[in-house]
Structures are given as C-alpha cells and as structure tokens.
Amino acid sequence: MGGHFGELARIRHVVTYSLSPFEQRAFPNYFSKGIPNVWRRFRASVFKVAPPMILLYLTYTWGNSTHEASKRKVHADFENEE
After folding, report:
1. What are phi and psi of 8, to 5 degrees?
2. What are the distances in angstroms from CA 13 to CA 9, 10, 16?
3. What's the CA gap between 48 and 68, in Å, rounded?
4. How many helices (H) and strands (E) does the chain have?
5. What is the pLDDT of residues 24-82, one digit of tens each?
6. Which is an annotated Pfam family here (predicted)?
7. Are 8 and 2 in contact (CB under 8 A)?
C-alpha cells in the first residue's frame, strides 16, 4: 500500500548518498582542529566587535551617571530656607 515516507517520489537525475549514523564519528577532530579553529575565528573578529561594544558601554554608563547626578538637588541653593 504505497511506499514508505522517504520513498514517495523519485526525482530523476539526482543521486543522493547517505552514511549510517553508526558509521560516523560523533566529534571527529574536535580537539585537534575544532578548538584551534574557534580560537582563530575569535582572534579574527574580536577587534571588529569589541571596540563598538566598549564604546557603547562607556556611553551608557556615562549617560546613567549624568542622569543620576542631574536628579540630585544642590544643597547650597536651599541653605537659607526654613
């Protein structure tokens, strides 16, 4: 009664290959190539990403401190009042 779900239609001139998950290694070259590749990519992009982030952080903290300072009262203005 019909084909299985993966075999419902055939596409002509398309060849697909598959490998059993039991024949694949889960983490091939993870320590020998994976971690050095992550480090290389990090070093390549850190100088592109970090300066704008640092600038935005400094601007944000400066804005917050300025806002907090502007909300305070100057006590010298109110010395002569009772």
Report:
1. -75, -35
2. 13, 9, 10
3. 32
4. 1, 0
5. 787 888 889 989 999 999 999 999 999 999 999 999 999 999 999 999 888 888 888 76
6. UcrQ
7. yes
The tokens describing 36, both together, are 């050095």
DSSP-H helix ranges across the chain: 35-71
From residue 19, alpha-carbon distances to 23, 53, 77, 78 in Å are: 7, 44, 81, 82
Which of residues 42 and 9 earns the better pLDDT score?
42
CA distance 65 to 71: 10
pTM: 0.54
Look at residue 43 in the predicted model and tell me its pLDDT: 96
Tokens of 29: 């070259």
Following CA atoms 39, 44, 46, 49 in sequence, which dihedral angle do they give, to the nearest 10 degrees? -140
**Six token digits for residue 21:** 């998950």
